[in-house]
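Sanity check. The docking grid for iron/sulfur cluster depends on where the pocket ends up, so I'm generating a full predicted complex first rather than guessing from homology. Inputs follow.
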Amino acid sequence: MTVTSTPRRVLTLRELSVRTGTYPLLEGVSFTVDGDERVGLIGESGSGKSLTALSIMGLLSPGLTASGSISVLDGEVIGAKESALAGRRGRDLAMVFQEPMTALNPTMRVGKQIAETMLLHDTQPNKKAAYGEAVRLLERVGLPDPERAARSYPHQLSGGQRQRAVIAIAMANEPDLLICDEPTTALDVTVQAQVLDLVVSEADRQNAALLFITHDLAVVAMLCQRVLVMYGGRIVEAGTVADVFTNPQHPYTAGLIAASDLDAVDAEGHLTTIRGSVPPAGKFPEGCVFANRCDFATDICKTQPPWTGVPADVRQSGRHSDHPAGRDETGGQDFGYACFHPLGENAE
Ligand SMILES: Nc1ncnc2c1ncn2[C@@H]1O[C@H](COP(=O)(O)OP(=O)(O)O)[C@@H](O)[C@H]1O
Ligand code: SF4
Ligand SMILES: [Mg+2]
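Predicted complex below; grid placement will be based on this.
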């Protein structure tokens, strides 16, 4: 028998809800990420993925209110003062956004920006040491002439180079959790794979947990052990990548998988897609948020489907029982689905 030590839990969301003044944008979002995990968060555009990430970072727009609990390491995010959040951002957790310019200051040289991140958190003793470390970081993230890159303004770098610089800033203080929100979507196809490789190698090198947001299921299958499926501001299914992608229980997950399979064409030769489109915020159906697009909807789906947690060894062969993704001791939503009529023979 292998004895495994329990990895540190870096992130716990419990019943996170986010509202505008009038309607909900996220509801009842609960999940955990452990220190040794790479977790994917998938869903169509408008599902609430970025809002989830921004909530964790404590960066929601002022008009939005969050309730529930988000703890990063041992610190609560919801209700925390901005000064406390700023002290943790970049140190306990860091984020790489879709568009690198969001994260960079256009008026400051790149090397100085990286150095300032370290000085802010006192991880370098002085400006000179911090600048030297910034140049080393730029080299490590693969910028060909790191000293020149350090002297450059963001607009003088290519999109891929800018994202590498953002990754350098994110990793500068060795965060415990790295959140990536579609980090390669805005980049040329040719550099996407390289930037993905960099994210993974940096997270691995520093033992950072990864919460990876994407609409690309193939990327999740490649990078992550566990996946959370989001739709209508809710987690609708969660589990190991192996379970969820081969034996999805929620019709939305099955639709996403079918839509990502480029070989899957219907009788007229059209690619399979999920019928209809994601409603704008505030316009999702009452009850099951997916009901207006679901082929299996019945009257009961007008009420909110409860979360059904399924032990790992019941779902499949039991081979996951040693894996962190199989644990559900927090009572969180790490494993299961929310649907009245789940697909698959293991489900009721
Ligand atoms: N500040 C905001 N005020 C009102 N609605 C918002 C705000 N931010 C995002 N939304 C809405 O919330 C929904 C989820 O957005 P988002 O989290 O960005 O989705 P995703 O990242 O999955 O594409 C979308 O309908 C979006 O328009
Ligand atoms: S609860 Fe009903 S409408 Fe929602 S996904 Fe399941 S079957 Fe479809
Ligand atoms: Mg988004």
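Relevant for the grid: Residues 93-174 form a domain with the Rossmann fold fold (CATH 3.40.50.300).
Also worth noting: The radius of gyration is 21 Å.
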